[in-house]
Protein: Adipocyte plasma membrane-associated protein
Amino acid sequence: GSTYSSKVFRVTFLTLAASLTVPLLGVTVLLDCPIDPQPISLKEPPLLTGVLEPNIKLRKAERLWENQLVGPESIVNIGDVLFTGTADGKIIKIEDGEIQTIARIGHGPCGTREDEPTCGRPLGIRVGPNNTLFVADAYYGLYEVNPGTGETKMLVSTKTLIEGQKLSFVNDLTVTQDGRKIYFTDSSSKWQRRDYLFLIMEGTDDGLLEYDTVTKEVKVLMVGLRFPNGVQLSPAEDFVLVQETTMARIRRYYVSGLMKGGADMFVENMPGLPDNIRLSSSGGYWVAMSAVRPNPGFSLLDFLSEKPWIKRMIFKLLSQETVTKFVPKYSLVVELSETGSYRRSFHDPNGVTVAYVSEAHEHNGYLYLGSFRSPFICRLNLQHV
Structure:
């Protein structure tokens, strides 16, 4: 009797499984997929040992102005006054602990995913030679902002086609000391900032551009970068470093000297997905990573990289918000030497104190940590780590 009943159970179970799987597959085939992913080949992530050994140093950071601002992506200072751009489209200044909105490039309402293109999203921010702010707004383009009057001046509009391409996701910028040249990234000519996960998963490529403030010309310097993100001029201003987020690496483009116009690899196969890059006081660079590629461990990004069909299935069935929940919250900041070797690393596994870190800005012995989602700025005392 028992073998008969187990047979019945098995047949029933298989029939039930098949009856569920077949329609699910049918639906999956019929559903549209918003992305057209390309296979990406990543090397096995570096082992988190030596200088990269996991620690909890980022947890020593203190949270400042909690719940008084949201998503302070990039941070600069003029003297002791801090400036940042936030997720609700504002450019704010923080002086003596007080937060004040100085400018907006877009207009309200703000708050939902649908609002973002009109609200605007200031990302990279830099200080020019005349103490004006240069701001990269993901939706509107490059702007110059007077921090005293709040007056905004458009330099490069996303409405203008550049060499036949649309700018859809202006991300970060770096400015020469004389303020003449601005190097900036357009992360995608297809996806907007609100769809950054599609961009990471699809692996489409875009470029590094140069804006000349005197001739008002925009030139494309590099193409074929997969999610070009943070940019930083070298201290000698002979090259620009560009973070290639999807590929977990940093490329170098020479802007002067014998190598001018040439490019090479600066750091390959990084332990996480690099976002912004900024100078460190030691002559090297701070790189913020909002996601890590654990080794030993399981890296979802690496697992999916050569499996476009799984990516298609996932995005046919799940929203970007849902997929984001599967990415482990792990914050990592590394300091690179001037030649691109790892000097030190600060971690916050599970993002307990510092989550969704987008930038590490050094000022006066402190590291100010920007975030594209958190409602605060973190500050880490470099003497205490």
In short: The longest helix spans residues 2-30. The mean pLDDT is 93. Helices lie at 2-30, 116-119, 196-202, 300-305, 308-317, 320-324.
